[in-house]
Amino acid sequence: MSRAGALALKQPPEFEPAAPRPVPAAPVIAARGLSLTYPTADGPVHALSDVDLAVAPGEFVSFIGPSGCGKTTLLRCVADLERPTGGELTVNGVGAEAARLRRDYGFVFQAPALYPWRTIARNVALPLEIFGLPRAERRERVARYLDLVQLSGFANKFPWQLSGGMQQRASIARALCFDPKLLLMDEPFGALDEIVRDHLNAQLLELWRKTAKTVLFVTHSIPEAVYLSTRVVVMSPRPGRIVDIVDCTALGRERPLEIRETPEFLRLGQRVREGLRAGHAYDA
Ligand SMILES: Nc1ncnc2c1ncn2[C@@H]1O[C@H](COP(=O)(O)OP(=O)(O)OP(=O)(O)O)[C@@H](O)[C@H]1O
Fold first, then answer.
1. Among 49, 56, 62, 168, who pairs with 225 as Cys (CB 3.0-4.6 Å)?
2. pTM surpassing 0.80?
């Protein structure tokens, strides 16, 4: 080997900075050993028992389980509408009360809960009025979020002039208009027929992809849960607890409604169903 060749070999390898390791994002929701027992005249009701869950930013997490397994109670704890009796809970790194005071989340209930005497635009604007935003900014935001839920042409209608699905879309716009990072949805489409529900599921998924919100979503429907979610939390009652967490990310982020006929979708649905059955057997 020539001297030049030997020197070349001895050169230290060119410095390449190591690729930065992905830093795990701080969870939006962190529950550790979370429990809530309601004292009732018939004795204590263990609505939640020892719930451990971490939800990362941008996840869509559904909660499914039979009536009374604590789905609503869990959402209400996150919203600081209930105080846990045990364990720890943080929302965006702070306690639930601090998160509520910081307006960290929007809440969508099963019923649209719109004021019948206010137009759709003025219903959506309500939280912005309460927060004291100037009129021009309120107008701009209401227009933007009505457009996002495809209700632009209905701003001046009253709730009773809209279908149930449209009313629910208005309540989603109202929950989003102050731009919370977290959206809490308690069976928002439970009262709607299948066709409308399919349509709203597809729209919600699109909205989630556009806005990068973190969503916690309560449902009784296995296909709805699998279709919408990055993860499905399967719960069981007496005491309310998590029995399985099903990862649905293999379905990707773009999900046409036809995805529900694919083998992967059916497999995930089956896994959720088995979790529900196992939780039931535990009770027996
Ligand atoms: N304020 C309350 N006082 C006493 N018990 C309550 C209260 N709220 C809920 N519970 C009980 O706590 C348990 C969990 O209720 P929760 O509403 O969280 O269940 P869920 O899974 O959301 O049910 P559903 O699917 O019917 O909405 C149930 O047994 C319920 O009866």
1. 62
2. yes
Residue 39 CA, closest ligand 1 atom number: 4
For 56-111, the pLDDT digits (tens) are 999 999 999 999 999 999 999 999 999 999 999 999 999 999 999 988 999 988 88
Residue in this structure with the two tokens 């962190």, named with its chain if needed: 30
Best probe residue, ligand 1, of 36, 42, 45 (max atoms within 8 Å of C-beta): 45
Spell out the domains of the chain, with CATH numbers in brackets: 28-104+180-188+214-274 (3.40.50.300)
Nearest CA to ligand 1 atom 12: 47
Ligand 1 pocket, residues with Cβ under 6 angstroms: 38, 40, 45, 47, 65, 67-73, 240
Q: State the distance from the centre of ligand 1 to the C-alpha of 208, rounded, in angstroms.
A: 28
ipTM of this complex: 0.97
Q: What is the CA radius of gyration of the chain?
A: 23
Instruction: Measure Cα distances from 38 to 32, 67, 261 in Å.
Output: 19, 16, 41
CA neighbor of 73 nearest in space, from 47, 96, 108, 49? 47
Distance 66 CA to ligand 1 centre (A): 11
- The b-or-e profile of 89-128 (16+ CB within 10 A means b, else e) is bbbbeeebeebbeeebbbbbbeebebeeeebbbbbbbbbb
Please give the order of strands across the beta sheet that includes 182-186: 105-108, 182-186, 214-219, 60-64, 231-236, 241-247
How many angstroms does the Cα of residue 237 sit away from the middle of ligand 1? 10
Q: Which helix (H) or strand (E) holds 47?
A: strand 43-55
Residue whose Cα lies nearest atom 2 of ligand 1: it is 38
